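Entry for the shared binder. Reason: the reviewer on the internal report wants the predicted structure included alongside the sequence.
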Amino acid sequence: MIFVRVSNQTRTMKRVKYLFPAVLLVAGLISCQRIVSLPNEPRVEYTSFAVFDTTDILGNSYKGGRLKFYFEDGDGDLGLPQPSGEEGSDTINLYLTLYKKSNGSMIPATPGDILFTKGYRIPYIDRPGQNKILRGTIAVSFLYQFYNTDDSTIIKYNFYVRDRADNVSNTETTPEISVSVNGTY
């Protein structure tokens, strides 16, 4: 009768011999995920609007608002470079339409309205690598400097974005917002 003694080290080596390729196979399968593709047109999705009290550096009290929204852009060309100062250079790529409630109806605010804003500039965003898809959340803050604390103004915003290739996103709408009541809408 012959006895063969297998050491613990030999058993461990046999386990590693089979375990190592299995781990590599699983890691390879996980890393070979299909590349996600999105349309070249950006997409926005309303997240929230918060109304809050704030003060400036001189101690003046104001009402503030913060619009948050999610965005996606399939070709990653959202955002504008610093304005060149040339005639016709784009400075706005987030467009807003303010509506105010008057006699029970929401009507667009005019450029002379103290709460009126046309839009904002989303700064240049560039994602290195092959996958250029951009996704994220943007927050835009508003100051309502001439707001009357006894006012019961109800507003809402429609908004959309435009990328550098002039692709326009869908338009999203906030719910009706009471500027006099702090909270999240």
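Summary line for the report: The radius of gyration is 27 Å.
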